[in-house]
Amino acid sequence: MDIWWHKNTQIPSEENYFQMCANKSGSLAAMAAQLGALLGGGNAQQIEALGRFAETIGIAFQIQDDVLNLSQSLGKEYGEDISEGKRTLHIIRTLAVAPEQEKKQLLDILNSHTNDKKLITEAIAIIAKHGSAYAKNKAAELAGEALKHIETLPESDAKRQLKELSQLLISRTF
């Protein structure tokens, strides 16, 4: 879905974007968490809770990863998603709320698959005005939702570590 959207210049809905993230990052994380819970002797409720936690935190992770691509953070290729023409949450949001001139400018840059740093910087400036904060807030919101999935699990060192992991994934700068 991710590749198809930017190769065919499609603009997904937020709902479709979240589904793509669930398929891309969330489902693998959910399966791993459920398998771990099953092998660890967890009951059906624990297996389900950990799976939902992992899927939701996987979506938050993907959003944060997309946000980091627009910063000059260590370990990320600056603006690579712009060069590839990816349709990420902050881009979807920007295209929904920006004035027409900025929407057109952003789409032209995305669809050109440019490596021109000046154009990439222009696109990032437009996104920063309209969509970056939204995406960061959505990642934080999803991390909070992920924690709700494990609220009913007994307090343990493992649960504390999952809480720490959720905070690390959305506050990371790499």
How helical, in percent, are the residues?
Answer: over 70%
How does the helix and strand content classify structurally? Answer: mainly alpha
Structure summary, number of beta strands: 0
Annotation field: number of helices: 9
| CATH topology tier name | Farnesyl Diphosphate Synthase
SSE blueprint:
Elements: H1 2-7, H2 14-39, H3 44-68, H4 80-84, H5 89-97, H6 100-112, H7 117-130, H8 132-149, H9 157-171
Helix pairs in contact: 2-3, 3-8, 3-9, 5-7, 5-8, 6-7, 8-9
Briefly say what this structure is.
The chain is mainly alpha-helical and 174 residues long. The chain contains nine helices and no strands. It has one domain (2-171): Farnesyl Diphosphate Synthase (Orthogonal Bundle), CATH 1.10.600.
Q: Can you characterise this structure?
A:
The chain has helices spanning 2-7, 14-39, 44-68, 80-84, 89-97, 100-112, 117-130, 132-149, 157-171. With 174 residues, it is mainly α. The chain has one domain: Farnesyl Diphosphate Synthase (Orthogonal Bundle). The longest helix has 26 residues, at 14-39. 36% of the residues are buried. The mean pLDDT is 90.
Pick out its properties.
174 residues; mainly alpha; Farnesyl Diphosphate Synthase
